[in-house]
Amino acid sequence: MPKDIRVKICGLTRAQDMEAAVSAGASFVGLVFFPKSPRHVEIATARKLALTVPPGVAKVALTVNAEDALLDAILGEVPLDILQLHGSESPERMAAVRSRSGLPVMKAVGVAEAADLAALDTYGRVADMLLVDAKPPKGAALPGGNGLAFDWRLLTGRRWPVPWMLAGGLEAGNVAEAIRLTGAPMVDVSSGVESAPGLKDAARIAAFVQAAQS
Ligand SMILES: O=C(O)c1ccccc1NCC(=O)[C@H](O)[C@H](O)COP(=O)(O)O
């Protein structure tokens, strides 16, 4: 019987990719505001993409240690539902962003080993949602979207008092196993549904959503 797993497709840069994510049944769509990323979108582009998203699909803006000026510029133009903080934002900064924006905040936490799990407990007390992602390798240019998985067994028995998503190296071929091992109620993918960095593939998106929900 299909499970009620919700999917976030992150790093959408083109209208056809947004359409593919929505048609495939994504519950969340992510727009990356980080110029070093191949998935970065300018604010005007993000606005156009966001305006095509139907009600019921949550539009997530992803920033990395963004200052207020950037957040205000994004929020002033782009209709959004959730802010994803993907840098080293402290719990205090996160709370400040939430009250400035009036939006729920999802904090991304990188995991590579058991010692990384403490941060999930900390942010799980203050964030509205958690994104449990793979920790980027040392020296990586990007803090996320690296197509790298972590040992999902680290999450066995771990739960937090807020909704959470699993991310990191997921693709159609491994997402069902990742859900089985972690009990994740939601999953997030970027590289695993691309044909090249920043360019999504409609068939891969559809296969991913189907595999996650099968
Ligand atoms: O995707 C990016 O380019 C990116 C850049 C800077 C910070 C975060 C970024 N992505 C974060 C995400 O939410 C990704 O979907 C998540 O890390 C999973 O990525 P992947 O392993 O490629 O599926």
Helical content stands at 25-40%
What is the annotated CATH architecture?
Alpha-Beta Barrel
- In CATH, the homologous superfamily goes by the name Aldolase class I
How many H/I helices? 7
| Residues in β-strands, percent | 15-25%
Task: Show unreliable segments.
Answer: none
What gross morphology would you assign?
globular
Say how many strands there are. Answer: 10
The largest sheet, given as strand count, sense and whether it forms a barrel, is: 8 strands, parallel
Distance between the termini: 7 Å
Strand order of the largest sheet: 7-6-5-4-3-2-1-8
| Overall CATH class | Alpha Beta
* Cofactors, ions and other ligands in the entry: the ligand O=C(O)c1ccccc1NCC(=O)[C@H](O)[C@H](O)COP(=O)(O)O
Q: From the alpha carbons, calculate the radius of gyration and give it in angstroms.
A: 16 Å
Looking at the structure, the CATH topology is TIM Barrel
What is the mean pLDDT? Answer: 96
Count of domain modules: 1
Category from helices, strands and their pairing: alpha/beta
Order of helices and strands: EHEHEHEHEHEEHEEEH
Task: Give a verbal description of the structure.
- This protein is of the alpha/beta class.
- The chain has one domain: Alpha-Beta Barrel (TIM Barrel).
- It contains seven helices and ten strands.
- The strands form two sheets. An eight-stranded parallel sheet has the order 7-6-5-4-3-2-1-8. The protein has a two-stranded antiparallel sheet with strand order 9-10.
- Helix 1 runs parallel beside helix 7.
- The mean pLDDT is 96.
- Bound molecules: the ligand O=C(O)c1ccccc1NCC(=O)[C@H](O)[C@H](O)COP(=O)(O)O.
- The site of the ligand O=C(O)c1ccccc1NCC(=O)[C@H](O)[C@H](O)COP(=O)(O)O has 27 residues, from strand 2 and strand 8.
- It catalyses: N-(5-phospho-beta-D-ribosyl)anthranilate = 1-(2-carboxyphenylamino)-1-deoxy-D-ribulose 5-phosphate.
- Keywords: Amino-acid biosynthesis, Aromatic amino acid biosynthesis, Isomerase, Tryptophan biosynthesis.
- InterPro entries: Aldolase_TIM (IPR013785), PRAI_dom (IPR001240), RibuloseP-bd_barrel (IPR011060), TrpF_fam (IPR044643).
- It holds the Pfam family PRAI.
